[in-house]
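Example 3.
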Amino acid sequence: MQFWLGQWKHPRYPTAGILHILIFAGFILLASRAFAVLVLGVTDNFVFPTFSGRLGHTYGIVRDYAATVVFLCMVIAATRRLVFRPARYAVPAKFGKAHTADAIFLLALIAILMLADSLFEASKAAANLQQQQPVEFLAVLSLPWMLKSALSSTPIPVLQNVHLGSYFLHEITFFFLLCYRPFGIQFHVETSLFSIYFSKLDREALKPVRWGVPDERIDEVKSLGVKTFEDFTWKHMLDFYSCADCGRCSDQCPANAVGRPLSPRFLTIKARDYVFRHYPVLGSATNSKPLIGELYSEDEIWSCTTCGACEQECPLLVEYIDKIVDLRRGMMDDGNVPQSIQKPLKALESRGNPYGKLGKKRADWTKSEEFRKACNVKIADGNGVNTLFFVDSITSYDDRIQSIGRATAKILDHFGENFGILGPEEKDSGHEVRRFGEETLFMALREHNVEAIQSCAVRIIVTADPHAYNALKHDYKDVPPVEHISQLISREVKAGKIKFNPIKNEMDVYTYHDPCYLGRHNHIYDEPRNVLDAVPGLKRVEMSRCRERSFCCGGGGLMLFYEPKEDQRIGVRRVQMAAEAGANVIVTACPFCMVNIEDAIKVAGMEGKMTAIDLAELVDQQIARDN
Amino acid sequence: MEILVCVKRVPDTSENEIQLNSSGTGIETDDLVYSINEPDNYAVEEALQIVSKVGGKVTVVTIGGEDDEEVLRREMAMGAHHGVLISDQAFSGSDGRSLAAILKAFVQKAHYDLILCGVQADDGAAQVGGMLAAMLDYPFASLVNSIEVADVEKLKVSREIEGGNKEIHEIDLPCVLSIQTGINEPRYVGMRGIRQVASVPIPTLGPADLDIDPRTVGKGAAKVGRVDYFIPAFGKGAEMLQGKREDIVDRLVELVAAKGGLN
């Protein structure tokens, strides 16, 4: 109800959103009128039961205004399409011709409906007026009222014809529109009710390989993922019909923004066109060929960072990540995987991390002399440790990122947490393995980790990696509750248990970059900001794209190994956004964001002008320690 | 077309930190992970692509122990139709010539139109393919980086020549080819695929099955033996260019041009 009747996501694009809400409200109000007019052709005095009397008159007035508003909206919408042409409606040449003609045709049909209905009413009112008969009250300044005034001196026989003519015009248009509905975006008026009602409630959790098949029986499934069109779920097919081609998804999509061959909008539109082509209304279905290579390219499907910006925006709650992952599962099952990703996948299988490093060296980041003096990290092996710090691969092995791990450990230590790590017993959380479609490998990693976590009998898990956080929270079962380090710090800040030293360089301007898997996927927006704002002297600005509209850094996990075709790095675009906001320090709370942003700073030639720091590193650096 | 691909299980150089063992006779094997020798994997992919075009079956064979079965399974998960493990105590310690002799005996037991092997094993000497061809009296082409089936009796193959040039040959079947990496993009094999072929039987053949006199192969018959194994000492380090970025770039261009790197 919130997303359908409440039109919840529409105002995110103010102009189009408000227009849509007005048209939507108009349609809801005018639905009964359309049927009333139909019957009026048979009997002149028809009114719906209960609509006689005051209610009927009130409805009449509301309806007059509704028709007028809808008509005006059509004019404005058409003007937008023809004159202002917002960029997101444009159709790149590779996806075929522009959709403007279709859009205008539809707008015209609706405008004709409104005009015909108003004319129908106005001509009767004008005739009644001339014959001094009781006149139905027409709302002042509404379309019928204006038309009535215009027609006030028209002879009765002409009015008769106008009245009849407009009636038929209204009905022909009405029935044409009804028949035309299923063949374009206008169908969303009907399908949206169902696609929104049946949309997934737990948006953060990935769709299972097949609904109704438990994980342990996945080996019995013959073919994994989506390979041909018929492998899509009925809900995903309904999504294809429901898309209104508004382009908000692609407007927000980071892959699309830097010229990768992916546009979520056309993922859907191409599928819809494919359906009409191959499963025609008349005649039989013509094929079920593989989609990859025919409808979608491999690069298109690998281009997605699963950041979720498209889904966040879609007013119709169309699911994209699940479709992308299902298509990847299909490619994985066929062995159709870029060589650059095969290597890390194999290493994950044999070593439990994508770098092919030795498992027994997983805890080496804790072992430097200097760090051990500051903080001694225990291995949690059922020895009464309360809190498990789940480190994950990149923080365990990457030289730069290990610093985030050490900062996190020192913070936990400062809070007096009795914490430990799994060390060599930990394997990659498998978060990206799963999102790259390698479900079987993911399940093996998960099984190993769940067992390791259960055997160390901790009360809570803490991680500094939003991807691990998301995996443990949504992909894993039967593990203790998990928290991101920013939540922990924020709580301590609120409780006043932590004091920060003032920031050293007061000229620095900080901005917080929301990691996709902390923000959009898990709604943790305020905690990191609260922590930053608690540091004395820290000046913070927001980038224009922040919080649930945050712009992905380029993607984590296996995405670091993928070599996309793009005009510019996604991270470079993000760093430029930070510069535009007037910041010179980007704070993030994700190891992968750190890799991407630091790389992007170098690529953009902004070394010295821009730096990046992890929230945990910043906190560790600013904590006022008593000694 | 019946294709045989000879494969080998080797320590995966991309995932291991290779260290000498304490006696200095070889490498430390405790923490090694093994995988199929990379060029062999390309050879299997190429064989699969050929049979998908012209029909036929692909057989993968390896000489080794029980552990080596895993690479056969992996290649069968890729799509190879049969796997054969040649294994016996008598074969251990074989040099290249012995391995080629064992494979020759195996090939003569069946019929193959085409025999592929990787260009060289990560821990090998790039010799078995050529010797096998010679022993069978088959034509041989090395460093092959594309194969086109011309007709039932001939292949068109291209070879990579030093300096990046290519040479195209016609070669009569049956023949032996050693396959260069980059000839194709091998498909991915995950755990699921391997699980699906886990119960497919893989025959193990010994000297009696192949009519080999055990005295002619193995350590005792080896004519080449390893006498030492060492990691070369680091050379004199690289030259570090210093100064302003522009100067460094200019100097770099000069150096590369001096070595003939810029034309």
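The first strand of chain B starts at residue 2 and ends at 6. Residues 2-221 of chain B form a domain with the Rossmann fold fold (CATH 3.40.50.620).
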